[in-house]
Amino acid sequence: MLYFLIFLSGIASGFLNVVAGGGSLLTLPLLTLLGMGIDVANGTNRIAILLQNIVAVRNFQKGKVLPVKLSLLCGIPAAVGSIVGTMIVVDLDQNLLKKIVGVLLLIMGLFFFIKPKMWSGEPNKKINPFLAAIAFFGIGVYGGFIQAGVGFFFIFFTAALLGLDLVKNNALKVFIVLLYTPISLIIFLLNGKVMFLAGLILGLGSMVGAYLGVKFALKKGINWLRYIVFATILVSGVSYLI
Q: Of 6, 68, 136, 176, which has the fewest CB atoms closer than 10 Å, so is most exposed?
């Protein structure tokens, strides 16, 4: 029954990660119910992240909304950052880190009201490559270390720095995550922090969720995505602060 719940949570998390973010906030607690430590749950979860983003990237590409060159420009520093994040020994108190992330997420949520046009895209926005590289390196560090909630940071910075609407924003996000996830997964594997059976069951569910998420994003467009992203940011931010 617990494995069945993990499969269902994979569907939910795959959908959420594609259209918004925060799917790992559903899967990590369930994986720990199997007796995993949070480090093993974090590593096992990477299997699902990898599989769902393979599906998502393929379908966004078929929908012709994936900016490949721009994704590579941002994905390379993010991949380097993920190596640092996965290998680093973080001295910061974990409870303090969660509260900082929670506050940052709630601040992001305010931007949905303060700057609603920000999420519709700015096609002629001037891009600062250096600033983008620094931002995506930092996101990669966070994603390599924790992963949970990293999608929200991608969404915010791709809108703020690159001027992409939420549909292309999500397409770029899953492409970048697909670039660095194999690196993180290999490092977790080498350190014995992955349970394959649970990861594959979670991954199968997440592939279904990712497919449904892409179809939803392409069909419903920016307005629906804005509401979903706002709701998931709000819930995730509060969950980090509690």
A: 68
